Amino acid sequence: MEQDKKAKVLCLHGFRTSGSFLKKQISKWHPSIFQHFDMVFPDGIFPAGGKSEIEGIFPPPYFEWFQYNKEFTEYTNLDECVSYLCEYMVKNGPFDGLLGFSQGAVLSALLIGYQAQGKVLSDHPPIKFMVSVSGSTFRDPSICDIAYKDPITVKSVHFIGEKDWLKVPSEELASAFVDPLIMRHPQGHTVPRLDDASVKKLSEWSSSILENLKIVPKALDSEKPSDKETITAGPAEVLVKQVIA
């Protein structure tokens, strides 16, 4: 059991945002939840090809991982994106888990499903867990028949918003995993604030991850985060119409 080691997590941001914005979104969660995780927040490989929903809320530049049609059935630059992320993970990892918001969550599940089927990341250790916020499955059968061919056994937690326009696709993604932890919240397409019960549940989940990885955390900070450690509710929460953000 290793005392000082941290679980390394690749965190993939939403469409036309950035790694630094996802880091800001996650910072509204109690810091003890991922205190013993090394969170890495890269930017997407393509500059935003249009208006970002966070303009005026968070400073540019903004990025996207790949492009898609209105029905989310056809994708552009997806293979290039997957290749880039696989190379990034091998070069900068190994990563124990993935965390993603919307388009980033879609990609996270794809990488895990593809790895389980031997399609990608053969030279990277198996991904052991995933955190999906407003995720979704792909709609292309040629992708689904591989990525979700078998139930995905990686430990996962799925945040599903009651007012999220991706609520149903998020539930479909969760159903592709074995024994997923479902975290429902009343908000929309956003990284939600967590009430005390949710903090407790997610903390227990993250502690179980560390135990499985044979990492012994030091005493967790039980104090609530100060106002400086949280984001005030406001425009950043209004991402409901962000397309596969």
Automatic annotation (TrEMBL):
PANTHER family: ESTERASE C25G4.2-LIKE (PTHR22778:SF55), OVARIAN CANCER GENE-2 PROTEIN-RELATED (PTHR22778). Gene3D superfamilies: alpha/beta hydrolase. The lineage of its organism: Eukaryota, Viridiplantae, Streptophyta, Embryophyta, Tracheophyta. Residues 5-197 form the Serine hydrolase domain. It comes from Eleusine coracana subsp. coracana. It holds the Pfam family FSH1. This is Serine hydrolase domain-containing protein. InterPro entries: AB_hydrolase_fold (IPR029058), FSH-like_dom (IPR005645).
